[in-house]
Design a protein that fits this description.
With about 425 residues, this protein is mainly alpha-helical. It has 18 helices and two strands.
Length: about 425
């Protein structure tokens, strides 16, 4: 780490909050979050992932719009998706309508009769793949090793793609109708209801965006995100999105030199910049949600956390203990995310331990991502658990299992292995799980 950053971290994280007073402690907490977000934006890979999502968006924007249009068209209000696109491209200034018409023009050419079954399958695959890539980014931010299974991914993603456009159109339609309904007009004529209706009309789009961000932050990561955390992060991301929209609109208004140099290509460059900024805001909000729920990671940030060999052995025994107790006692089945939360370690650190146990046949994962003992707990001994995690706890690289070892070292290690077999080889997992 850069020495200047280390000194700054010591200044932010070392002083005790009690010695700073109430105001100083609050300021220290705020600065910790600001520092963590700025640090990860500057030296982390959020920017790279945002640019990668821009490229994915270019491939999936038209199929996504076509999929959404085909759903809402059957409900009779497919024309309302045009204003949604225009609102999204609003910061591009006068070019927003032009870009919206181009996207809609592409969508109009993607009719079901022209696509055929193969084209429709490719369209659905493209749409699902972009959400999968967003989930991968969110899981990386949340230190989640295991993504959704294919069955869950397909069903849940398609459910969001079907219901999402309908809810968005209904929400924006409700906001747009505030100024036309007679009851709303009557309320507007009576204070203080009129002021409340006016504020709701102006804040309506922001509230819809906040709800959208909150849903994404709570649903997409393959871990449990508290609703309060997702809402605070969604509110912050929505405020950042609105502020970025005003700033980008001002930039477009004063970028006459870009228009002169790039001519008709300027709209493409502006659209790419706006897409990148949107993805960056979304990922930064997800990072903020992660830090809100896990403040202990403010200092280490997104650095890779590798447990020691000693901790891996203890985690393996704890995983098998909890999974077996749930299996024997007919309790709710364990998942990697719930085990990581219960053991207070990130999923990305627990994942290799679970993979090693599964590779040894000691664990099985169901289609619902639930963990079960790989065989009868009465036939599994504790030394097998330790041997599994000691010999195969890394699933990311080829294992180096042989080397030229000196005779004294080999003899000492053989004695350790013999002691483990003697002490733990006679204790079965069922007996271990019965302990309190």
């Amino acid at each position: 780490m850069i020495p200047q950053l280390r000194r700054l971290e010591d200044l932010l994280f070392e002083p005790a909050a009690a010695s700073l007073g109430r105001a100083g402690a609050l300021l220290q907490v705020v600065l910790r979050y600001v520092y963590a977000l700025v640090r990860d934006l500057v030296i982390g890979d959020l920017n790279m992932r945002a640019m990668s999502l821009v490229y994915t968006t270019l491939l999936s924007l038209v199929p996504l719009c076509a999929f959404s249009f085909s759903i809402v068209k059957g409900l009779g209000f497919h024309h309302d998706l045009g204003p949604l696109l225009t609102e999204f491209f609003r910061p591009l200034g006068d070019r927003a309508d032009e870009l919206t018409q181009r996207v809609l023009g592409f969508v109009d050419h993607m009719e079901g009769g022209v696509l055929g079954s193969l084209g429709l399958g490719f369209l659905i695959w493209t749409v699902v793949s972009v959400i999968q890539k967003v989930e991968d980014c969110f899981n990386h931010i949340w230190h989640v090793e295991q993504a959704r299974s294919f069955a869950r991914r397909f069903s849940e993603y398609l459910g969001v793609l079907v219901i999402g456009p309908i809810l968005m159109v209904a929400a924006f339609g409700l906001v747009a109708s505030l100024g036309t309904e007679r009851s709303v007009a009557w309320l507007s004529a009576h204070e203080p209801l009129g002021t409340l209706v006016l504020m709701l009309g102006r804040l309506g789009p922001t509230l819809v965006v906040t709800a959208g961000f909150t849903f994404l932050y709570s649903f997409i990561p393959n871990t449990r995100v508290r609703l309060r955390v997702a809402f605070v992060a969604g509110l912050a991301a929505a405020a950042a999105w609105v502020a970025a929209g005003f700033a980008f609109t001002a930039l477009v208004a004063y970028s006459t030199q870009m228009m002169a140099v790039y001519a008709s290509f300027a709209i493409v460059l502006l659209a790419l910049m706006w897409l990148w900024l949107n993805w960056l805001i979304l990922l930064t909000g997800a990072l903020f949600a992660f830090y809100l729920q896990n403040p202990g990671y403010l200092r280490p940030g997104q650095r890779e956390l590798v447990p020691t060999a000693r901790l891996c052995e203890r985690l393996a025994l704890s995983v098998m203990y909890l999974v077996t107790r749930a299996f024997i006692g007919n309790e709710p089945r364990c998942r990697v995310a719930t085990l990581a939360e219960q053991l207070e370690v990130p999923s990305i650190a627990l994942g290799p331990v679970v993979d090693a146990l599964a590779l040894a046949g000691l664990l099985e994962t169901t289609d619902g991502e639930q963990l079960l003992p790989g065989r009868d707990p009465g036939s599994i001994t504790l030394d097998e658990v330790l041997a599994a995690v000691r010999d195969g706890r890394s699933g990311r690289a080829m294992m180096l299992s042989r080397a030229v070892i000196s005779a004294p070292a080999e003899d000492a290690c053989a004695r350790v292995d013999a002691l483990i077999r003697t002490e733990l080889g006679r204790i079965t997992l069922r007996e271990f799980a019965d302990r309190t």
